[in-house]
Design a protein that fits this description.
The structure is a single chain. The protein has four helices and five strands; from the N terminus they run H-H-E-E-E-H-E-E-H. By secondary structure, it is an alpha+beta fold. It has a five-stranded antiparallel sheet. The longest helix has 16 residues. The termini are far apart.
């Protein structure tokens, strides 16, 4: 399939998201990085772990431009916060000035506490996530949330 000249000249969605932009974005909401950061795996978005001199590291998630509306992102934030409030393992976005979704230049982003994941059971032959305690709690919680 041949690309049009408009497709060829359009800049990629994250062209302007440089390391300096990431640090400036966090600085704009009062989170000052010390300059160290690494990119983390993410298919749709750009996610970075940033270290700070005066506090534990944070994770910044920059949302793909034009992919989701602000309302959709905020709905995701609310759901994760609700899951966390019910003691189901989840990492909700950090509120800064009463907001979880922030803007810097053309980018929208959220900030999270850095939290390591959990490995599977070392001796388990089969894993059944649907039978796990967190899965059962999420299932019960989902029945209480209006569609």
């Amino acid at each position: 399939m041949r690309q049009s000249s408009a497709d060829i000249t359009a800049s990629p969605p994250y062209a302007g998201l440089t390391a300096e932009c990431v640090l400036d974005a966090l600085d704009s909401v009062g989170i000052r990085g010390d300059g160290r950061m690494i990119a983390l795996n993410s298919y749709e978005n750009r996610v970075y772990q940033l270290w700070r001199d005066d506090a534990p590291p944070v994770v910044a998630k920059f949302y793909r431009p034009a992919r989701w509306s602000d309302d959709q992102i905020l709905e995701e934030h609310a759901l994760v916060s609700e899951i966390d409030a019910h003691e189901i393992p989840a990492v909700p976005p950090i509120e800064v000035d009463g907001r979880t979704l922030h803007r810097f230049d053309e980018f929208r982003f959220a900030i999270y506490a850095r939290q390591g994941g959990r490995g599977g059971e070392p001796n388990a032959r089969f894993t059944t996530p649907s039978g796990s305690r967190p899965h059962r709690k999420i299932d019960r919680l989902s029945k209480t949330i209006p569609p």
